[in-house]
Prior knowledge:
Blueprint: H1 2-44, H2 53-60, H3 69-79, H4 86-96, H5 106-119, E1 123-126, E2 129-132, H6 135-148
Antiparallel strand pairs: 1-2
Amino acid sequence: MENLEYKKALEAAHAEMQDILTKRAAFDLRLAQLKSTIDSLSILLKETPQIDHKALMDAMNEGSDVIGISDAIRHILSAKKVPLSPVELREKLGVFGIDVNRYANVMAVIHNTLARLEKQGEVTKIGDSYTLVTRESAFRRGLEAALSGKRPDK
């Protein structure tokens, strides 16, 4: 009987974690969009933004390194319910706070990142667009890899 209770508790914890991660991704994306809007409007009005961008970015990245393009793509795809093309992802990366101009060929970087994420089983290609594989299946693959002593991204 105890195993059944533990299983229910585990399932509830997984569901709650999924819910929180989904909400966090949506909040992070909205914060990035608002930062971009404030920056753009401030430029148009020739005003200095009245926001501490460093504190905002630190809060968005709390507990992790500065967000990279792979994590940004994961966040963008998790916040969207429809698949996105690489071109759409490029547009969203700018809104998300990724400086796409730092790459000599940002589309090559996006395509390579998507190919790697697809190989790792994190995204799936639908036509010319990509969507995030559900966290439950990604978690299951990660758990299986951990139990086998392998890293899921290798």
